[in-house]
Design a protein that fits this description.
Its EC number is 4.2.1.51. The chain has 272 residues and is of the alpha/beta class. Strands 1, 2, 3, 4, 5, 11, 12, 13, 14 and 15 form a ten-stranded mixed β-sheet that branches. A five-stranded mixed β-sheet has the order 8-7-9-6-10. The structure holds prephenic acid (PRE).
Length: 272
């Protein structure tokens, strides 16, 4: 049987770790294919296969690029979700010689206090693994990278410091994206993600949406606004909620009255 592709960020990234975890639950033969950026993952998945990308971190909040791309790539849906503990490492040659640390912007932000304490310069790149690769290839002792244990092993560099994230409870949620998937086992919990624009900019407009959820006794797990990109001060809203007894079509219908558009980003299982 032909191997299908599951696309994610480069070898050694936390996204690769999440992909391996997803593969434990997915039915079928998938081969991991690596992409340089979240945008590339969406582009590949648009032509078929599956993808795994980060969507939210417990310290830094949403990965806004993922949010925007879910809206842009209309045929790509969220098919599953899982969260991982993220423990960052300082990777390189000699901690005392470091002047600049390189990493993904989310990882740099999650270690902001640690970096500040050492007075290092920072440089952002597309992924934590790319940062480690740059440090390995440059052989420059004044550079350090922030990344996973796997990436240090893969590029044969030393771990100079462990658990350097500023907050202990550092977790990132990853989503499985694509058009369709079959799982071997299904968990108990399901979630729904939607995005919409309010019909009118008037007092209580968002309240009417929230009221529909409150009256139906549906638990929201996330609400977030992003610029609509049409005009300054206009927003679209992303809402995640627990999937319960209520019929999804009925929920969406009740919200339609208050929105100019509403898109279902996915109804999907949440794995541990
Ligand atoms: O660069 C990586 O290792 C990634 O998988 C990306 C990413 C992110 O964008 O949030 C994933 C988990 C961590 O929060 C830091 C970086």
């Amino acid at each position: 049987m032909k191997n299908l592709s599951i696309y994610t960020l480069p070898k050694g990234t936390y996204s690769e770790r999440a992909t391996k975890k997803f593969l434990e639950y997915i039915d079928g033969n998938y081969k991991i294919d690596y992409c340089n950026s979240i945008y590339d993952v969406f582009e590949k998945v648009d032509n078929g296969g599956l993808g795994v990308v980060p969507i939210e971190n417990s310290i830094e909040g949403s990965v806004s690029l993922t949010q925007d791309l879910l809206l842009q790539f209309k045929d790509i849906k969220i098919l599953g979700e899982l969260a991982l503990d993220i423990h960052h490492n300082l990777i390189g040659y000699d901690k005392n010689k470091i002047k600049t640390v390189i990493s993904h912007p989310q990882a740099l932000a999650q270690c902001r206090n640690y970096i500040k304490k050492h007075g290092w310069e920072v440089k952002a790149v597309e992924s934590t693994a790319k940062a480690v690769k740059i440090v390995a290839e440059s052989k420059d002792e004044t550079l350090g990278a922030i990344g996973s244990k796997e990436s240090a092993e893969y590029y044969n560099l030393k771990i100079l410091d462990e658990n350097i994230e500023d907050y202990k409870n550092n977790r990132t949620r990853f989503i499985l994206i694509g058009r369709d998937v079959k799982f071997k086992t299904l968990p108990k919990n399901y979630k729904v993600s939607i995005v919409f624009e309010l019909k009118e900019d008037k007092p209580g407009a968002l309240y009417h949406i929230l009221k529909e959820f409150a009256e139906k006794n549906i638990n929201l797990t996330r609400i977030e606004s992003r610029p609509s990109k049409k005009r300054l001060g206009t927003y679209i809203f992303y809402i995640d909620f627990e999937d319960g007894k209520e019929k999804l079509e009925e929920i969406l219908k009740s919200l339609e009255r208050h929105t100019t558009f509403i898109i279902l980003l996915g109804r999907y299982p949440v794995f541990d």
